[in-house]
Design a protein that fits this description.
This protein folds into two domains: 190 residues, T-fold (Roll); 93 residues, Orthogonal Bundle (T-fold), CATH 1.10.3980.10. It contains ten helices and 17 strands. It has an eight-stranded antiparallel sheet with strand order 1-2-6-7-10-15-16-17. A three-stranded antiparallel sheet has the order 3-5-4, covered by helices on one side. The chain has a two-stranded antiparallel ribbon with strand order 8-9. β4 and β5 form a beta hairpin. The chain is globular, with a radius of gyration of 24 Å.
């Protein structure tokens, strides 16, 4: 009996050692993973990261994102952008490197689109009521009057003094189409510097990946169907791509819009006309930076199907997909290669 008892104890002890060993191996195989969500920049920001001290790194990245978002938000009275708007036609405003870089880059894309994309379109955005509960179709006369305040050429940049001035009283800028991509890139650089090698940042249409998932698999990303009105946001993807270490950004007419007399009016305004761009329902761009993807997805949307298709085809550093309001699709060769089976 004593011998059997000893054997029984020995077996139990052996099982405990095996369980502990399995747990130890699993702890090695599954490095520290951390995931969190926050709401700012008028969207839900989520970060998923894997690596040593991933939690501290992600919280640090979020803090950096909030800092840049706060100073670039025209709705915050003390932001740098609000100060620039208040001093329009009066005097230059001292800015930091982040704001200077965003405005300089925005002007480059204004030239690319021949003025269709323009961060000074803000007075027209306000006229339409986007960002408020009082959206409406303005009168042609009202739009014509406000267009006098819209021109990227009237943004005066003094790089030496690090100042920005808007030439005319009443001018306003909005960095909404620039800041998100810029901020996501800054967060990613912060995480990389902390040694984090597996990251997925989702900033409401701006997705950035660093490396692969912790197990080596590529990230699977869904591209939303621009004409799927299902309430469940997880059930309206019509394309899935597999990527690693890249940026995927989509602009569409389905995020911020209203219907009037059976017609859709969305927030992506052509700064030359003051009206929403027509023809495309969504543009997805895959680029080497979130900032480039952010600006290009909006700029190509404004250029329209033919010019957007030509631009993507002529630039080997980007891939893309276009969907028209009639449901026509076009994908670049490189984009097709990323489609999941």
């Amino acid at each position: 009996m004593k011998a059997k008892k000893k054997i029984g104890i020995g077996i139990i002890f052996l099982i405990m050692i095996i369980i502990l060993a399995i747990g130890f191996v699993q702890s090695i195989q599954q490095p520290n993973q951390y995931q969190t969500k926050e709401f700012f920049m008028d969207t839900i920001i989520s970060i998923q990261a894997t690596g040593e001290n991933a939690d501290k790194a992600v919280e640090g990245a979020l803090q950096k994102m909030r800092q840049i978002a706060d100073k670039s938000d025209r709705y915050k009275a003390e932001s740098i952008v609000s100060k620039i708007n208040r001093q329009a036609g009066v005097k230059p405003v001292k800015v930091d490197q982040d704001i200077l870089a965003m405005i300089k880059t925005a002007k480059e894309y204004s030239r690319l689109t021949e003025g269709r994309f323009d961060i000074t379109v803000t007075p027209i955005i306000e006229l339409w009521g986007f960002g408020t509960d009082e959206k409406k179709v303005p009168t042609p006369q009202a739009i014509e009057n406000k267009l006098k305040l819209v021109s990227y050429k009237d943004i005066i940049i003094n790089e030496e003094e690090k100042t920005i001035m808007l030439a005319k009283p009443g001018m306003k800028i909005d960095l909404g189409a620039v800041a998100k991509g810029y901020i996501v890139d800054k967060a990613a650089n912060f995480l990389k510097n902390k040694g984090i090698k597996s990251v997925l940042i989702n900033a409401g249409g701006n997705i950035k990946t660093i490396g692969t998932k912790y197990n080596g698999e590529k990230w699977r990303l869904g591209i939303r169907n621009p004409r799927d009105d299902e309430e469940d946001p997880n059930d309206n993807y019509f394309k899935v791509i597999e990527v690693k270490g890249t940026n995927v950004v989509t602009s569409g007419d389905y995020e911020r819009y209203f219907m009037e007399a059976g017609k859709r009016y969305h927030h992506i305004l052509n700064a030359n006309t003051g009206y929403p761009a027509r023809g495309l329902a969504s543009v997805t761009v895959i680029a080497d930076s979130s900032l480039k993807g952010d600006l290009l997805s909006t700029s190509l949307f404004l250029l329209g199907f033919d010019k957007a298709k030509q631009y993507i085809a002529e630039h080997a550093d980007i891939e893309g997909m276009l969907v028209t309001t009639s449901g026509k699709e076009w994908q670049s060769t490189g984009f097709k290669d990323l489609l999941a089976n």
